[in-house]
Design a protein that fits this description.
332 residues; alpha+beta; four-stranded mixed sheet; three-stranded mixed sheet; 10 helices; 22% strand
Length: 332
């Protein structure tokens, strides 16, 4: 459904967050709820499917700063914010209707209600009929988890989508089960589930969005929204990622740290040898240029930062102990 038409509920209540919630709090709440109510987790559960659509519609608005601003100001009429503000500029009118702060009065010359406002705005040629442009439904967002290796090389995900059509009787969207519309009892047409392969590009990071045009849900007038995959890159056991850069700890024997030598450094794809200068201190970081993550939609790669972790011997024989005693006596 379109975000405005589907939401009798407050978007903040749908996600279970406060009106002043941060972007991170909104994103975290959305991911938790989306996983819980996803149709793949609740096959055949109509209530879960409806809840999933409400969650997506709410997140579509609250995750977008501009849409959220309009929603906070105009409530369920947020999609008409541009028209309202244009009318304000042209006629000096006022309108504000927020979900959380009650209703404020608005002036629209001699028009008595909001329906009259929009009728006046969309009236063309002085006639009595109104025309409104077909509205797209809210985009469907779906979380997808990838490994660091998949984020490095790029990968694909095969999804099963069910594209519901608008009911030809009442125009309701996403409310058709079998051939019967739950809204009006009329008959609609439902497309069969189909498999969709989506390419996830190299360099994605947590929060990256992969948009698949026209694979969401149908809206009034037949315009289909987009399917948006929200990427979550799983933490790696060895590599720590910051942007396009990676950090890894490397074990260096005490003798190599003191006298110099070479140490093996793992990368995402292979291993390289790093020259260790004499008297290298524990915790020293070496930058290996261009051995980090690919830059999303750009040329080149980030850097790999190798942090030295000096490895001490776990036991000493008599000769080794004698040598260390000599070093201590020499004040080393």
């Amino acid at each position: 459904m379109g975000a405005a038409s589907s939401m009798a509920k407050d978007f903040y209540d749908v996600l279970g967050v406060k009106r002043g919630a941060s972007e991170k709090e909104v994103r975290t709440a959305y991911r938790k709820l989306a996983r819980k109510y996803h149709p793949d987790v609740n096959p055949g559960d109509q209530a879960a499917e409806t809840r999933f659509k409400e969650i997506n519609a709410a997140h579509e608005v609250l995750s977008d700063p501009e849409k959220r601003r309009k929603y906070d100001k105009y409530g369920e009429n947020w999609e008409h914010a541009d028209q309202i503000e244009e009318m304000q500029r042209q006629r000096g009118q006022r309108f504000s209707r927020g979900n959380g702060g009650g209703f404020q009065t608005f002036d629209v010359d001699d028009l008595g209600d909001l329906g009259g406002v929009f009728s006046q705005f969309f009236r063309q040629g002085g006639g009595a009929r109104t025309r409104t442009a077909p509205r797209r439904a809210a985009n469907i967002e779906q979380p997808v988890e990838v490994t660091l290796e998949e984020a490095f090389h790029g990968t694909t995900r095969t999804l099963e989508t069910v594209a519901t059509e608008a009911c030809p009787t009442c125009g309701g969207v996403g409310e058709i089960a079998g051939a019967t519309c739950h809204t009006c009892g009329g008959y609609g047409e439902v497309q069969k589930p189909r498999r969709l392969e989506v390419k996830i590009p190299a360099g994605v990071t947590t929060g990256s969005k992969v948009r698949v045009a026209r694979e969401g849900q149908a809206g009034p007038g037949g315009q289909r929204s987009d399917l948006v995959l929200v990427v979550d890159v799983r933490k790696h056991a060895r590599f720590e990622r910051t942007g396009d850069d990676l950090r890894v700890d490397i074990d260096v024997p005490l003798t190599t740290a003191v006298l110099g030598g070479e140490a093996e450094v793992p990368t995402v794809t292979n291993k390289v040898m790093l020259t260790i200068p004499a008297l290298t201190q524990n915790g020293r970081i070496f930058k290996l240029t261009g051995l980090g993550m690919p830059r999303l939609n750009k040329e080149g790669r980030g850097d790999l930062h190798a942090r030295v972790r000096v490895r001490l011997p776990e036991e000493l024989d008599d000769k080794q102990r004698e040598l260390f005693e000599q070093l201590r006596a020499a004040g080393v």
